[in-house]
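Annotators were shown the component list below and the corresponding predicted structure, then asked to write short factual statements about the assembly.
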Amino acid sequence: MNEEIKTFTISIYTENNIGLLNRISAIFQRRHVNIESLTTSQSEIEGVNRFVIVVNISESQAKKIIGQIEKQVETIKAYYHTDEETIFTESCMFKIKSDLLFEEPQIQNIIKDSDTRIVTVNKEFFVLEKSGRRHEIEELRKALSTFGIMQFVRSGRIAVTKQEMKITEMLLAFNNQ
Amino acid sequence: MKDTQTLETIKSSAMVTERISGSEAIIKCLIAEGVDVLYGYPGGAIMPVYDELFKYQDRIHHVLTRHEQGAAHAAQGYARISGRVGVAMATSGPGATNLITGIADAQIDSTPLVCITGQVPSHLLGSDAFQETDIVGISTPVTKWNHQVTDASEIPEVIAKAFYIAKSGRPGPVLIDITKNAQFGELDFKYEKCTGVRSYIPVPKTNPETLKAAADIINGAKKPMIVWGQGIILSEAEEELKAVIEKAGIPSAWTIMGASAIPTAHPLNVGMVGMHGNYAPNVLTNQCDVLIAIGMRFDDRVTGDLKTYAKQAKIIHFEIDPAEVDKNVKTDVAVLGDAKASLKALLPLLKKNTHDNWLQEFKKLYDIEFEKVIKHDISPSKEGLTMGEVLKEINRHSKGDAAIVSDVGQHQMIACRYSEFNKTKSNITSGGLGTMGFALPAAMGAKMAEPERDVVAIIGDGGFQMNIQELGTIFQTQIPVKIVVLNNEFLGMVRQWQQLFFDKRYASTEMTNPDFVTIAKGYHLEAQKVTKREELADAVKAMMASDKAYFLEVCVEKEDNVFPMIPSGASVSDIRLS
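Structure shown to annotators:
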């Protein structure tokens, strides 16, 4: 029963309550599953939060974890999807010394070719921002690291699914009960 | 009836909204939920609530346990025998952490509890204040739901939600942590029972197709077998289960948590499955053609090695918790929903049937178990007393009507194997967590919830000493429980494993015990000690006849083993008789 380990994006719609992050992350911890990335935000529905969690696990593990997440009182619905079933992106920021922007013309080419945005420039440093797939961000980081990066940060994955999520309908059905 | 009346009173008085303190609101909420007794221990951060308990003592009975763990287990015993929500209360810090074992036990055994803890004032949260602990963080993995209240105005809604969540669907423990300023603060009190939480589906909808598919498989089965669990008791589906079993003529076994849902003497009751269960249902799990699991969760102590568990059988799983379906055992048909409703709907779809030859298979294996194990357990020919004969003696007097509260270990397995049960909710034990120290406080709670029933605690000498302090509660509160300590001067189950799997290296399992009778007498309990077989009958008779708390120590054979036994990781059909 050696099932293939795949990257799954787990999407969870929840109430917006203190402690829920702890409750959800504990489910992964109990099964000794490492969370590759985790993002929480407001969802498309007012007052409903959305977690996007990326994990590398087998599909049967994903199913069991979804079951245990959905069982939590304040979880409205949870899903798991493969990369093929989602549109996803990550974003990142670089802080770099301003001198380099003028001294190293190569940097300007990197910025242009990689579709990276300049967020701000001042006398001491400039800040770049880019959204994209992990490998694109990694390529950019490698390219810029030769010149020296003061700070680098990458966000967790955010993803929307190709499939429809009928959360609004579910909440309406509850309200009409 | 009483509950609704109380609620009506509260509701009508709430028309004129009262301005009251948070701590008074807590008590009013408990009364509105029909709580007549709660267990707890006071301390700094919960003192305002205790002050209100003092004022309301004619309406709600607080039992001072001798340790917060005792309070949690007592609330569990109360809940398990009655089906009502058990309530425990403690202060912040160590008071709260001492509840955790009981909460974890209630979580794994699906017991409805509401635990209320005091917390430091909200302006001190996170500052490492005196007796501050992050009990919401600590209790998160072992609660069905938990919540911290920092403002008095939240109290009625949160407590209503706590009771609703604890009791509905698959029950479980809820912890409400209330800061001291919220207890002192004031609110306009109005109480409404909670009837739903939008993100929470307590009972999943039953798909009629799955019921039909299950019925078709059952109707076509030649060698069907039912294994029921506590789900039957929790959904009060005993009559529905009996009707299904009898109509379809299916031999039916139970998990430790399902014990007593169908009387022991029922001709289709074929005994307990699992590690120390009966020989027949374990062996025949691997011979049946259809295995119908109802309100059980295929615990590893039930299934043994999953790779060889009922592989030949089609598996039907009736289950309220979707997370349990296919968790351990892959099912052919899963019927989601409440067991009572599902079984009621299943009954008309079933053909009337008998499986006499198949039932004979169970009888044959029972006879083997009787010759090799049971006979020696309950009618021993050797000199030393056995745990089994003590249970047999208790059965003689209880006639199967007593509730048996067992602790954890060899005596627990013996109690579950040999107790006779006529009534449901009669086997109260720590099944999933295996918490030594459970039985003494749980028996107190059970007896207080159902004072008309005889409650007999069966405890080993190890577990007894884990919560022995609750003798003080029994004495002070005059709770007439019957306490039987089966003393083998060993941590018997661990010793058994050491004998069988660790070449008899008895590492830290031998106990040098105090004089238990003197201790019991120190608490002014009637107490007796039995060391010889000829004393046993009279001693049990005296205990069963007593209308007061009674302590009976029986010195049993030191190195007896519990059989049958499925060695850890072995297949259910490789169950050993010796």
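Statements collected:
1. The mean pLDDT of chain A is 93.
2. Chain A has two domains: 6-87+159-175, 89-154.
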